[in-house]
Design a protein that fits this description.
The protein is built from twelve helices and ten strands. It has about 325 residues and is of the alpha/beta class. The longest helix has 15 residues. The model has no long low-confidence stretch (mean pLDDT about 95). Belongs to the shaker potassium channel beta subunit family.
Length: about 325
Amino acid sequence: MVNYRYLGNSGLKISEITYGNWLTHGSQVENDVATQCVRAALDAGITTFDTADVYANTKAEQVLGDALKGERRESLEIFTKVYWPTGPGGPNDTGLSRKHVMESINGSLQRLGTDYVDLYQAHRYDTETPLEETMQAFADIVRQGKALYIGVSEWTADQIRAGAAMAKDLGFQLISSQPQYSMLWRVIEDEVVPASKEAGLSQIVWSPMAQGVLSGKYVPGKDLPAGSRATDSKGGARMIERFMRDDVLERVQGLKPVADELDLSMAQLAVAWVLQNDNVAAALVGASRPEQVAENVKASGVTIPAELMARIDDVLGDVVERDPAKTAEGAPQTRVV
Ligand code: NDP
């Protein structure tokens, strides 16, 4: 079963393996398979589920809400996000303005079939809305009981520091940061993690398996596995492209002996690796099939000895990205409509 960790400097416990439905629910996988994945997660002791209004243009929230129907609400932690446009593209259908935040939470709650979310996250930093306006809107949402806690995603260290200080002044806390983090993408280690520790946030990390690449199933020179994200023309193939390079895939194959030594699959090794970082509260893992969920949860509770952590660094060498300047890479610098 899955272990639990506190989220930031709060009393909220979450399952250290959290199930996320980006690119899958409402898109790559049929609804019955989505439901089976959620069921497999619940059966394995996962209580924490992450989605966003923008995933499959709101369908992912709906599919997750339907799949969780009938579950005891108090036994779940449901996370969603606001920022990216989901409406017909009006000037206020995007960003972190008070208008968009206050309207978006209502849509998310309706689709998820719940009166409140446990964590409401700013999906990116909005460079055009004053931070005070966003934080005041979040404070009001917390006071209305529509969200119990607030987090951010892909914010830089400076943005986290400023947001956390302002939240404190308004009487609530930022408790989490949701960045990309894996053996191949370590850009948060130098700046985001220290700033988060200081401000009382922990990380809920996305794509811990580099979207499936670290499972070792993409072998250079071989056909892509049928049904995998790299073959998903609805969006997955484009998203995983960054890691689909022979030099990366070859290095990843070199991790197999390390996984064998720990009696883990490569997928489990990848998930266990992010959980070795004590500022990580959860690995946010996706799945296109229920068997993957059952496999991945076994990464919970694994300790990777220092000697093998060092070996992983040696095997991956310079294909690992560590440049802190790449934090929030691709985050829009102006409002997207
Ligand atoms: P992962 O790195 O865990 O990749 C998951 C994908 O890898 C699965 O959908 C599956 O794809 C493949 N996979 C999973 N388990 C196995 C296995 N055991 N063996 C082989 N292949 C496997 O994470 P995601 O990229 O899916 O992201 C996870 C979550 O993070 C999202 O659902 C979302 O909640 C969050 N996220 C947040 C972002 C943000 O901006 N805040 C951005 C992106 C994600 P397949 O079978 O199709 O190959």
